[in-house]
TrEMBL record, chains A, B:
This is Bifunctional protein FolD. SUPFAM superfamilies: Aminoacid dehydrogenase-like, N-terminal domain (SSF53223), NAD(P)-binding Rossmann-fold domains (SSF51735). The gene is folD. One of its GO terms (cellular component) is cytosol. Residues 1-29 are annotated as: Disordered. Catalyzes the oxidation of 5,10-methylenetetrahydrofolate to 5,10-methenyltetrahydrofolate and then the hydrolysis of 5,10-methenyltetrahydrofolate to 10-formyltetrahydrofolate. It comes from Roseospira navarrensis. It comes from the Bacteria. Gene3D superfamilies: Leucine Dehydrogenase, chain A, domain 1, NAD(P)-binding Rossmann-like Domain. Keywords: Amino-acid biosynthesis, Histidine biosynthesis, Hydrolase, Methionine biosynthesis, Multifunctional enzyme, NADP, One-carbon metabolism, Oxidoreductase, Purine biosynthesis. It catalyses: (6R)-5,10-methylene-5,6,7,8-tetrahydrofolate + NADP(+) = (6R)-5,10-methenyltetrahydrofolate + NADPH; (6R)-5,10-methenyltetrahydrofolate + H2O = (6R)-10-formyltetrahydrofolate + H(+). Pathway: One-carbon metabolism; tetrahydrofolate interconversion. The lineage of its organism: Bacteria, Pseudomonadati, Pseudomonadota, Alphaproteobacteria, Rhodospirillales. Belongs to the tetrahydrofolate dehydrogenase/cyclohydrolase family. GO terms for molecular function: methenyltetrahydrofolate cyclohydrolase activity; methylenetetrahydrofolate dehydrogenase (NADP+) activity. The keyword Hydrolase applies.
Amino acid sequence: MWRPASTRCPGGRGEAAISDSGEGSTMPKGARVIEGHEVARDMLREVHHDILELSEVHRLTTTLAIVVVGDDFNTLRLIQNKCQRAEDAGVRVQLHTLPPETSDDEVITVIEGLNHDERVHGILVQHYLPRYRDARRLIEAVDPVKDVDGFHTRNAGLLANDAPAFVPCEALAGMHLIKQFVDARPIGWHACVVGDTHRTGRPAARLLLNERCTVTIANEDTRDLAEVSRQADILIAATNRAGMIRPRHVKPGAAVIDLGRSRVTVNDELRIVGDVRLDAVREVAGWVTPVPGGVGPVAVAMLMRNVVTACRRQNRVDEKARHAAG
Amino acid sequence: MWRPASTRCPGGRGEAAISDSGEGSTMPKGARVIEGHEVARDMLREVHHDILELSEVHRLTTTLAIVVVGDDFNTLRLIQNKCQRAEDAGVRVQLHTLPPETSDDEVITVIEGLNHDERVHGILVQHYLPRYRDARRLIEAVDPVKDVDGFHTRNAGLLANDAPAFVPCEALAGMHLIKQFVDARPIGWHACVVGDTHRTGRPAARLLLNERCTVTIANEDTRDLAEVSRQADILIAATNRAGMIRPRHVKPGAAVIDLGRSRVTVNDELRIVGDVRLDAVREVAGWVTPVPGGVGPVAVAMLMRNVVTACRRQNRVDEKARHAAG
């Protein structure tokens, strides 16, 4: 039903905190800062439980293969972090490190081997490939049912059509935090996604659309970003431009979810920062996720959950369970 | 580059006509009504030329197969119209009319036969299937390289990733009219798509995103539609709710593209109408497309163009031409 103009901001958990009025608002100052670590811990506990069940009941060792080409230090550190989290959750990791001189065809041969290996349930191809590589070709080589990153065209299409898909983990994590902390059913909220990349902004917009939000997608050519983003009850920052989201971009009381991630040097020290100026924006927002420690850890947990889902689907675990029960 | 807030409404053809100011505007009243028939005629002439070349140079008969299940009168009339347009353009049409009692498996067997028939370049499965049918399953059975309707998950994913894809013809036609009449490069315009269906609204939004517009997608749960849509320089109506877009939904001077199509009975007479109240909205808008006679004929021409593209790709015509030239 297309609703009449008068039905603004219906009930629900979000109503008390998301206020329409800017000045004269009765809202307390200071946003709730959503910490991701605890959420990730709970999620990884569930994942661990599922993995034990897959192992004990179905004799399956949930396995993630990671294909890394080259020896970029930052990439390897990121991969190391994922391996550690995977092991903590009980996911077995196969690391395929290929020297930088490996040709794309050789990489694809490795990926195809993993596609056919039924002991491997999820495949990651690392992102920070040297510029000369055809990243899209490598991504498309991954079997969509093992594409736990959700980057394959088939998974993008399934998500676009609101069908069961593997969804990129940062977008999934942002949506999870909104549903856990802001509104379990964000139907009708106005969301603004700032940044329209294929890996974070666009998938996030698709998830919000599938939740029946009104969604605005802003990009580098948006003419007055603050005017656009300030209307949003939910603001998703996905630009990877350090600190570009300031208080003037944020509607008072809004939920601000930071999917950005940039490396900046402060006093000769390398730091990871997000798109949002946390200290300033928390004075205006209702909720805000920090970087690091917000969406990041939840995204890693989401990746592990995707691997478990992949393992279950490939082995038709749920169908077998239903069959046994029936 | 993320632009500063001050660079609103840059130059270009659109600027003179798309005005920010509501009252006190110096704009002339009365929108330009964009007639689609002439555009379609020009397009079909080009298609006809391409088809002759495919026939004479490459010995190919550009062929569209249409699979129709059942005998719904309105569907058959629509199909008849498509057949006529196709023949006019020189596309050979294979009509496969199956009785209403045909099972989905039998329909899929027909589709698979057409997938493997290299004399068939495009396949349409008619949309108004009886409710009990699994329309998605039939659509997914079409080989994506022959899916000239652009409904297959693979084509949705390709469009989502801004890769060459078959795009649903109504969305394609709307975008074509914007580029021909409003702005050939609508970068940075704020577009609002009202209606988020998989077949029209969402593909239209993806096309606008790929053109680097700022895009808002509104749906049935949008709280104050007029407030949202009135901000848009380009308003795409895709709700199939007769006459729901009124002047209060439209920014003065905006381009209003009507992708809607509803059957209504007026004085016992069946009429096709769009989402937009043309007579009222033309007083406010800068451009508006009528229904019928706006997007519709262009969409049919776009379908024929998709069939030609399919024929060229399947037979690698452009590669061969490049090869011959090299």
